[in-house]
Amino acid sequence: MLLTCLCAWVKCLRTQSAYLIHSRKELLIYFD
User: Fold this and answer.
1) Global pTM?
2) What angle do CA 12, 4, 6 make, to 5 degrees?
3) How many CA atoms lie within 13 A of 17 on its CB side?
4) What is the pLDDT along the chain (32 residues), one digit of tens a residue?
5) Cα–Cα distance measured from residue 13 to residue 28, given in angstroms and rounded to the nearest whole number
6) Please, which contacts does 9-18 make with residues 24 or more away whose CB atoms are closer than 8 Å?
7) Helix or strand or coil: residue 6?
8) How far is residue 9's CA from residue 15's CA, in Å, rounded to a whole number?
9) Minimal CA–CA distance to 17: which of 29, 25, 6?
10) What is the top-level taxon of the source organism (predicted)?
11) Helix (H, G, I), strand (E, B) or coil at 3
12) CA distance 22 to 7
């Protein structure tokens, strides 16, 4: 149970960080 929760949390964190990096790139392009 705990392991599945941890896996889901890590997956969520990865998607969130990928999204943040993506939006940051868009911001850099926008402000360039």
Assistant:
1) 0.49
2) 50
3) 6
4) 788 988 999 998 888 888 888 888 877 776 65
5) 22
6) none
7) helix
8) 10
9) 25
10) Eukaryota
11) helix
12) 22
Give the type of residue at 27.
L
Q: How far apart are CA 32 and CA 25, in angstroms?
A: 10
Please count the residues of the chain: 32
DSSP string, 7-26: HHHHHHHHHHHHHHHHHHHH
User: Residue 21 corresponds to which tokens in the numbers above?
Assistant: 């990096």
- Quick one: tokens of 32? 């360039």
In the block, tokens 């890590």 appear at 10
